[in-house]
Amino acid sequence: MRRYAKDNKINEPNTADVTKDTVDFNDEKNNIFTDSKNIESKENDETAQYNQDKSSERKLSRRLLGIEDTENFENRRRSSRGTGKHSARQDRNKKDSKVISWLYNSVFTVGHIRVTRLFAITSFLVLALAVSGFALWLFATDVLEKKMPIENPELIPSEKIVYIQDEGETVLVKTEEDKVIDVVESEEIVLNENDLILPDESSQIYNRMTLHIKRAKNVTIQAGSEEHNITFYSGTVEDALKEAGISYDEDDIVEPSLNTEVKSDTDIKLDIVEVETVTEEVVIEFETEYGETSTVLKGMYAVTQKGVDGLAEVTYEVTYVNGEETGRKAVEEVMIKEPVNRVELHGTALTRIGEGDDDEEPSVSVKNPDEQSTNPTVPGTSSTYVDIVSCMVTAYTHTGHTTATGTWPRSTRTLENPGSCAVVPDTFPYGSLLYVTGYGYCIAEDTGGFRHDPDRWNQIDVFMNTVDECLTWGRRRDVKVYVIRYGY
To answer: What is the pLDDT of residue 390?
Structure first.
């Protein structure tokens, strides 16, 4: 639709100009399209080159790690898939390949350097170890400073700090000396005989050096009958015994105990204990059994069975301390011969004197079987006795009591088994063996009231079984008495 102004006229466009503009626009459009194609082609070339470089780098990595190319690996896997013979190994290799591929995949790139996961993990572990070591060093330094709180003094260039440890005490000194011996002299340290200083006196001094002084201790060890003197520096009783080369076992006695710290005044005693097994034959003494019988006069006794000792084989554990026996313990006893007990029966019957005819015999026995005799042997030469005394001799019989020495009176009268007699102890001490003429041998075991009469100092009262025997004997003067021995 054309519009017309009342007074104005619209000019028609120039056809030549329009055609020219259209050609210029199409040329510019073609140029832009060409440039776009060129840029896209260049980008494709760069992408292809990058992929090629990446593939080459991956192949190189696999060759360095001894792993075949993924394509070759996949071809081998496909060729053996149907067999089932190596499926487990193939799965394991596949997993290993995936792990290695994961480790060697890039995390990020710094310039032309690719940072893989393996490098990142390794770097992290190394850093963690370094931090841990540094922390441990700080902790150890702090502990040492707390244990040895010594100030760090200002030093002149030629001075050195030296720590001196002497019997557990630590002292810090500053010195300009170069040798250990010079430090000892300058600090006036007294070293006794056999004392040690470590390092030795000829060693060079350096800063923060520690000198250890070992004080010698003279220790005496009494091991059994042997005495050992050693020079000992530090340790326990057990260490001192090892130093002296002395062996012992669990039975031995050590004083003080093995874990006691040795000091300069410590003396060690080792008692060597030995236990031996000994077998001996031992006599088993018989015992005496007592009883009563009405067939023997009161005051008399009868032995119905003699005692016989037995014999046994006894095994002992004998303990010796330092070679001397200190005890024994019976651990086994084997009886070889049983002992036979002695049986002794004491009489309870009374003698019936004055009843019936004068010639009537007593109704009970008056002798002890195998122990009484009426045939004494008279002493021979003077070598068989020590003295001869003229005495007044009387007789007595049973009283129902024991003698003054606690025995039952006897009238056996033989040298092997003498009878009993009462005496004045001041003249004939108890236990004296006498031979009374007309009576026989007897032992002074009893006494009587005559001992208080000084005129009867030499009286002897011999024992007889019956009153009739006593009356028959009567009182005899100037009887020759042989003294075989005085006292027991």
So the answer is: 92
Residues 219, 241 contacting (CB under 8 angstroms): no
**pLDDT given for residue 16 in this prediction:** 53
State the amino acid at position 205 in one-letter form: I
Dist. CA 172–CA 182, nearest whole Å:
16
pLDDT value at residue 481: 92
Model confidence pLDDT, tens digit, residues 97-118: 666 666 666 555 656 666 677 7
Q: CA nearest 371: which of 322, 408, 399, 341? A: 408
The token duo for 336 is 């070889």
Q: How many CB atoms lie within 10 A of CB 33?
A: 10
- Give the model's confidence band at 62: pLDDT under 50 very low, under 70 low, under 90 confident, else very high: low
- Find the helix or strand (DSSP H, E) in which 50 lies: helix 15-64
| Tokens linked to 210 | 């520690």
Q: Which amino acid is at 334?
A: V
pLDDT band at 359 (very low <50, low <70, confident <90, very high): very low
- Other CB atoms within 10 Å distance of the CB of residue 301: 19
- pLDDT for residue 336: 93
Helix or strand (DSSP H, E) at 342: strand 342-349
Compute the distance between CA of residue 116 and CA of residue 96 in angstroms, rounded to an integer: 17
Sign of CA dihedral 212, 218, 221, 227: positive
**Range 20-31 average pLDDT:** 61
Question: Cα angle at 348 between 342 and 353, to 5 degrees?
Answer: 130
CA distance 463 to 420: 6
Nearest to 232 by CA among 223, 224, 221: 221
Choose among 160, 154, 200: nearest CA to 178. Answer: 160
Q: Per-residue pLDDT for 283 more than 70? A: yes
- pLDDT above 50 (res 150): no
* Element housing 344 (H / E): strand 342-349
Residues contacting 479, CB < 8 A, separation 6+: 390, 391, 392, 393, 436, 437, 438, 460
Percentage helix, strand, coil for the chain under 3-state DSSP, each rounded to 5: 30, 35, 40
Q: What angle do CA 29, 32, 37 make, to 5 degrees?
A: 125
Q: Amino acid identity, residue 46?
A: E
422, 426, 427, 430: CA torsion to nearest 10: 50
Place of tokens 């030093």: 155
- The distance of Cα 43 from the centroid of its chain, to the nearest Å, equals 90
Alpha helices in 210-325 (DSSP H): 237-244
Between 144 and 7, the more confident residue is: 144
pLDDT interval class at 1 (50, 70, 90): very low
**pLDDT at site 357:** 41
Contact 420, 443 (CB under 8 A): yes
Quick one: pLDDT at residue 3?
Answer: 43
